[in-house]
Write a structure and sequence with these properties.
Rossmann fold; 6 helices; alpha/beta; seven-stranded mixed β-sheet; 7 strands
Length: about 180
């Protein structure tokens, strides 16, 4: 079984912000596979199968910095290994629209990823990172909570599409193939 986690912040105030790109990918991935979200306490969830593999897609509703508590609940409920978790999130240190898949690693300063590491006690989960760029004019917190500029939207939409496809490829063809295919600049 695979657990796909799209990171973001709940509520209309944060919809369409840079920090919510993980939610955008989870939504598109679910739509592509005919899955419908339902709300539970602390997260939105849907489930189904791809190529015979059971999948659960979740969006924590605990706000970014506390995402790990919702992930931990599903890890415990389904007895999941960290290596069967795919976390989709924004990355400030990559150009807007760039995609990178990693097998494991540190949080890289991302509070949502750090919360997951702390909550499940492991760094050994897959990350699908979508670049949102960096803006030296604004503080990091206000930048990640801002909406994309109109000129960025085509690049971000394409990145969200590629990221959703990359999750399908990780599940269907394996992490190595997906990394080789999507980790190009």
């Amino acid at each position: 079984m695979w657990l796909v986690v799209g990171l973001g912040n709940p509520g209309t105030k944060y919809a369409g912000t840079r920090h919510n790109v993980g939610f955008l990918v989870a939504d598109l991935f679910a739509e592509k596979h005919g899955l419908e979200f339902r709300e539970k306490t602390g997260y939105r969830i849907c489930d189904g199968s791809i190529d015979g593999e059971r999948i659960v897609v979740m969006e924590p509703l605990t706000f970014m910095n506390k995402s790990g508590s919702a992930v931990r609940r599903l890890v415990d409920k389904h007895f999941l290994s960290p290596s069967s978790i795919i976390v989709v999130h924004d990355d400030l240190d990559m150009d807007a629209g760039r995609l990178k898949i990693r097998k494991s690693g540190s949080s890289g300063g991302h509070k949502g990823v750090e919360s997951i590491i702390q909550s499940i006690g492991s760094r050994e989960f897959v990350r699908v990172k979508i670049g949102i760029g960096r803006d030296g004019e604004h503080a990091v917190e206000s930048y990640v909570l801002s909406k994309f500029r109109r000129d960025e939207l085509p690049v971000i939409r394409a990145a969200v599409e590629r990221a959703a496809d990359s999750v399908s490829d990780i599940i269907g063809s394996g992490i190595e193939m997906a990394m080789n295919r999507y980790n190009r600049a």
